[in-house]
Fold:
Amino acid sequence: MLGISGSLRQESFNTRLLHASEGLAPIGMDIDVYEHLADIPPYNGDIDGENVPPVVEAFRDQVRAADGLLIATPEYNYSIPGVLKNAIDWLSTGDGGQLLAGKPVAIMGAAPTNFGSVRAQLALRQVFVWTDSKPVVKPEVIVFNAHERFDDDKLVDEGTQDLVRRLLHALAAKVTEG
Ligand code: FNR
Structure:
């Protein structure tokens, strides 16, 4: 699986959640966390097609090769962080608009606030309608009060660990159902 964090922050709860997921995945599932989101240029239809930037080509290759995506995102101003939306825009036009079609996608999100990430998660689900992807519907993983669930880099909250485990099993099932 390719893990994508919607936050560029070094201390990001969402990036930490993704790394914690690596240790919670079912046997046989590897999670690689994408590390170049900050390098993806703004989407521009004039350079899409013939002049796609190498970093975008490489990103598309990684997504093409992955069985599925695991996205962990914060909510910025009640919606998807721009950097994440921009990256998905580049993916969505790949392979004649089919790059994300049928791709299993699991979504989760963390925030130190009470409802943080819920609205971004809902907005992301809308995006994956247009792309014909296969989002996992349940369980919903909404890591509110995230600051209470981590001890430095380690996800210590057992309830959250269990939810993430269930999400990853559901993602594996989406991959298997084809
Ligand atoms: C936020 N934050 C935030 N939180 C929330 O619950 N609802 C929101 O709409 C927003 N909006 C928002 C906009 C911007 C520009 C920033 C920088 C932050 C707070 C956010 O949840 C918090 O900073 C998280 O810790 C960000 O996630 P990472 O970076 O820890 O993964």
